[in-house]
Amino acid sequence: MKTAGVDQRELQGGCPLWLIDRPGPAILSAKLWIRGGSAADPTGQRGRSQLLAGVLSRGCGRLSGEALADLVEGRGAGLRCEAAEDGTLISLKCASDDADLLLPLILQMVSSPWLVEDQITLERQLNLQTLQRQKEDPFQVAHDQLRHQLYGDGPYGHDPLGVEAELAQLGREELQQCTQQLGQGGAVLVLAGQLPEQPERLLLEGLGGQGWSTQAPVRHPGALGLKRRSLASKLDDTEQLVLMLGTTTGPLGSEQALALRLLHCHLGIGMSSRLFVALREEHGLAYDVGVHYPARLGDAPFVFHLSSSSDRAKEASQELLNEWLRLLEEPISEEQLQLAKAKFRGQEALGRQTCSQIADRHALVLGHGLPFDFADRCLIEAETLTPEDLHQAAKALLQQPCLSLCGPDDAIKVAETVWNQHPLNRA
Amino acid sequence: MVETQGFLSLSGLNTTPLPEPQRGQLANGTTLVQLDLPNAPVVCLDFWCRAGSGVEGPDESGLAHFLEHMVFKGSRTLQAGEFDLRIEALGGNSNAATGFDDVHYHVLIPPEACGEALELLTDLVLQPRLDARDFDMERQVVLEELAQSEDQPEEVAFQQLLKQSCLNHAYGLPILGAREALLEHTPEAMAAFHGRHYRADRCCLSVAGPLAALELDALLSNSALAGLKPSQRDVRPVPLHFEPGEERLELPRLEAARLLMAWPLPGAADQMSVVGGDLITTLLAEGRRSRLVERLREQLRLVESVDLDLNVLESGCLVLLEAVCEPEQLSAVRAEINAVLLALLQESPSEAEVDRARRLVGNGYRFSLEAPSAVAAMVGNSALWGREHNLQAPLDWLNEWDGRRLVQELVPQLQPQRAFVLEAVPA
What integer best gives the mean pLDDT of chain A? Predict the structure, then answer.
């Protein structure tokens, strides 16, 4: 399908290049999505992808880390490298007039990073400190615990930052190996904004006439969930009890993923959403309540989250479990579905406001091996779904959820009792 | 002026002229400001009122923020939840935020539904129902919000920093309010607060997005805005009395130590100082090559992170520093920060260093103009406080600062002896 203002090319070496022309604000956003994030960390080396991502901008090609930072910051630009579960993302945002200077950095970073020992040590130390500090946040603690319940020690089982003991052992050798593998699983580069005249020339600059070797990402099965019901609790001396209730579902673009996305809209998007109304408006049980359902190449998590004062633990856990059970027992109404579809359309429009958002969304979809117009196709397909379709998806994918609790002892005991007696735990 | 031109031609970001805000006033004195962004996919409606926590009386702790919650519980014409339902069914979303100085309520909506959304928003905000049962329920939600923030030790530390340094000023008190006070509030007291502060001359409606075909003017003069009465007396923000000092705090659940510092700067009305403040905080702490990040994180490796933010406030801006480190490094971190600040006082930064900061600030500003919500918030807040500059002005003001002027006017205000310093360590 050909879209106005969109051009598809291929860089020497095989990297697909998508150009989305948005003249006007004189901004350029570039996103390089490389298949293979933290889910590809080998056993014993968990944290490798994120460590490498952090080190990529600490020297590459002819530029030392300092020179690179000078160049990027000196043009007032932003450059970020981060590993997520399924991919490593390099993002550049700059004034379009600075594209000549800055675009060449992207492929240099992935093809010839310096990997200086001293800079690796620094980056590793920072990641270890961040992992430690994250434990201050009871939501993070509950989330880490749930992740382990859902994925065990599988590819999605750890924070992209890594596992402390393994991250502490990582050095230059492991990163070198990881660099050689960068791009082997496929990659895609998306530019959105006011485009330079010869993007290919700029992108290949400084690669010594060699392209960066990769290919378009293809569809292939990602990491799996355990699909085993469990309860886990972590004591913490907090005011509130954090509850996370979730299971693992399927990949972005899989058969029932769109139905689940509409359920997500119904349950967790906006102040008219089911969980917000049921738990916050009708019971005043929480300030923050919602659904977490990220796009994944493998079995994506689908999670309800809530935090409530420990003296209301009983009511909060009952209501949360009831809402999940309701999904399995009855379809949502036609009216609720229409609202969910309106939210889905609204989310799409709201997610296309800036060059970065547009580049980001397309890079994600293409990185998953899905077609460029995937989001538009989903908008059309969503219109055909019925309440029964959503109910079937819930029954197929949301059985046997896991409950993760973090909070004070008495609240946990109460919530555990509710869980043990609830039909959801006995179904 | 020659210097200004030189910067403009260098910056690469000034190829397209920035749109001009269109200003107006209703017959009753309510301020209106509109900004046309022809390519944006959505319109942002942003209602602003000078009714932040700063105008609360002694018995009104937390009332401004609690009212912001209650507004969404319906109006004379809208049932509780009806606003959210209708806005979200139109593909839009809404939210609100209460600050020390002001509160704002905003809606993002597809252009074709803008008229309806305008009517809904103004009805909702200006004629809240404040039903007694809803009031009790929403109080629970606010208490949950308070509990959630108390479970984040970092937030507790920042609250202490402001409490100790801003003494009895509103900036030293929590926006969420004190628990005991929240338990005492009544719908009647809240109605009185609303009636006192939501007045024509204290409100502003800002609209940004594709406005060409909308003909909002007629709608605005027929909206609930036109029924607002002017204030009985003018309430101006009370000047900030800031007390330098220091404090050490042991906090449970803290994993890493924090060094927090606060400095006062002139209030938001002094736009030139605000721009200078942006520039100096960026020069000091944005990016690897900024002074503090380079020294403390990259070279000495004493911190996991160091951030410095300018909080733009009416009674007096606050510059807040946060360094995250191991408890045993606190004194070294503090000594190094002091040394960096002192060094800046003794020698002007080079033109290249100032230019780097200028580009980062200028680009950040330009980038933010891509999203209608950021634009509406920016022009709405300015108009609320009677600042009528166009969007280009801040970029011009940036050019009036150079290294020497920063050192003469701003750096002396950011010296250690002028700060309140709080060391927070794990209990």
Answer: 96
Contact B359 A76 (CB under 8 A): yes
Residue B1 in this model has a pLDDT that exceeds 70: no
Task: Write the ipTM.
Answer: 0.95
B130, two tokens: 């404040």
Helix (H) or strand (E) holding A191: strand A187-193
Phi, psi of B242 (to 5 degrees): -105, 135
Instruction: Check if CATH label 3.30.830.10 holds for domain B245-426.
Output: yes
Domain boundary assignment for chain B: 20-227, 245-426
Give mean pLDDT, residues B45-54.
98
pLDDT tens string B90-101: 999 999 999 999
pLDDT at A186: 97
Q: Do residue A309 and residue B42 have CB atoms under 8 angstroms apart? A: no
Confidence at B2, pLDDT banded by 50, 70, 90: very low
Nearest Cα of chain B lies from the Cα of A111 at a distance, in angstroms, of 22
pLDDT in tens, A227-268: 999 999 999 999 999 999 999 999 999 999 999 999 999 999
Using CB atoms, pick whichever of B11, B88, B151 lies closest to residue A346.
Answer: B88
Q: For domain B20-227, say whether CATH 3.30.830.10 is its number.
A: yes
Size of interface A-B (CB pairs under 8 A): 184
> What's this model's pTM, rounded to 2 decimal places?
0.95
Residue A220 pLDDT: 86
Q: Which of B15, B289, B360 sits opposite A76 (nearest CB)?
A: B360
For residue A5, count CB atoms less than 10 angstroms from its CB and return exposed for 0-12, middle for 13-18, buried for 19 or more: exposed
Judge residue A12's burial from the number of C-beta atoms within 10 Å of its C-beta, 0-12 exposed, 13-18 middle, 19 or more buried.
middle
What's the gap in Å between the CA of A27 and the closest CA on chain B? 7
**CATH topology agreement for domains A6-204 and A231-425:** yes
Q: Which helix (H) or strand (E) holds A190?
A: strand A187-193
What is the band of A1 on the pLDDT scale with cuts at 50, 70, 90? Answer: very low
For residue B304, the distance in angstroms to the closest alpha carbon of chain A comes to 5
Residues 139-168 of A with CB under 8 A from B: none
Domain ranges of chain A: 6-204, 231-425
- Class at the top of the CATH hierarchy for domain A231-425: alpha beta
Q: In the Cβ-directed half-sphere of B352, how many Cα atoms lie within 13 Å?
A: 5
In B166-270, where does DSSP find H-type helix?
A: 179-184, 187-197, 216-222
Q: A333 CB near a chain B CB, below 8 Å?
A: no
Distance from C-alpha of A357 to C-alpha of A27, rounded to nearest angstrom: 12
SS3 category, A89: strand
Q: Does the pLDDT value for residue B137 go beyond 60?
A: yes
Please determine whether the domains at B20-227 and B245-426 fall in the same fold group of CATH. Answer: yes
Residues of A in contact with B356 (CB under 8 A): 73-74, 76
Minimal C-alpha gap between A323 and chain B (Å): 19
Q: Which CATH architecture has domain A6-204?
A: 2-Layer Sandwich (3.30)
- Least CB–CB distance from B91: residue in A73, A126, A349: A349
CA-nearest residue to A128 within chain B is B304
